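Revision sheet: C-alpha cells.
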Amino acid sequence: MDRTRLKSLGPLVSALALAAFLPVLAALWVGDGVQKLLTGDSATVYSVTQCVQGDGQLARAHCDGTWAFADGRTASGEITGARVEAGDTIFAGDGWAYDSTSPLHWRIWTPVALVIAGTAALTASWLNHREAREASALASVPALASASVN
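Predicted:
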C-alpha cells in the first residue's frame, strides 16, 4: 500500500474509531439515569430538613428529606430539583430522589441525540471521503475523465 493511500485512510480510521467509541460513552453516561427510571417509583415527601438553592453552575438546587413509598418503605437523602415540601409527590428510589422524572429524561435523551447527530456527521464524512476517492480515481484515468466531461 503506498503512502498516499495510507494517508487518505487516516480520516476514515479516525471516524470509525470515534463511531465505535460514541455508543460506549453514551451508554456509560446514561446508564445510571436509565437504571433510576426503571427502578424508581413515586413517593410522598414525609419531611424536609433543609433546601439549598442552586447557583446555576456547580451547586444544584436540592432539598434533604425523607420520603415514603406506597408500599410503606421509607428512604431519606437528597431530593434533586425544585424546592419540595411535605406532602409533595416525587420520583425516588432508596437513597436518591428527584422532584420529577424530567431531569432523568434529560440525562438520557441528550446523549442519545448527540450520538445520533455524531453518527449522521460521521456518515456524511464517510460518504464525502468515498466520493472524493472515486473522483480522484476517475481523474487519474484520462480516457474516463474526458468521457465524463462530455
